[in-house]
Amino acid sequence: MGDHLILGKRYEYNNDFFDQPLDLGFVKLCQVGELFCESGFQVDAHNQTVYEISYIVTGKGTFITNGKECQVSPNDIYINRLNQTHAIRADCGVPLRYCYLAFTFCDEKVDASLRPLQEFYSKGTEEITRDNKTCSCFLRISFVNYRRRIAII
Question: Most C-beta atoms within 10 A of its C-beta, which of 27, 36, 90, 134?
Fold first, then answer.
């Protein structure tokens, strides 16, 4: 049996740039990836040192942030903010597949038109957006464009 099955992962694509974040203008990309895991699999609790957006592709699971549990399902977008502790668990009997982006803001490049976005991530209280087709489409396009850019490099 392969390591990926022993670990409970069917598939994992993870690129992290924490040592040298990719400068994308008003944000720096620190990590991008996708995890498709077996039912019952859990990502251990860890502290967020950056902002993270997770998009649920298929399956069901629970995101636990600072001890608060939130059920997730396809097309949900979950946001983790700086200094939060979070874990992720796939539901029993249902594998979970999600994509994630981790980033920081480049304060010197955030102009007045982007301040509301930065404030949303910095001061927001909502962790989840459900069935938001515009956001879902934006995230899908972001992942596709990122993959194309990396393929060129």
Answer: 90
Whether 28 has a pLDDT exceeding 80, the answer reads yes
Q: Quick one: pLDDT at residue 113?
A: 85
CB of 61 closer than 8 Å to CB of 69: no
Contacts of 10 (CB under 8 A, 6+ apart): 4, 36, 37, 38, 95
Is the CB of residue 28 less than 8 Å from the CB of residue 21? yes
Q: Which two tokens stand for residue 58?
A: 């298929």
pLDDT tens-place string over residues 115-133: 888 888 888 777 777 655 5
**Phi, psi of 40, deg, nearest 5:** 85, -10
- Other C-beta atoms within 10 Å of 36: how many? 20
pLDDT interval class at 110 (50, 70, 90): confident
Q: Are 16 and 31 in contact (CB under 8 A)?
A: yes
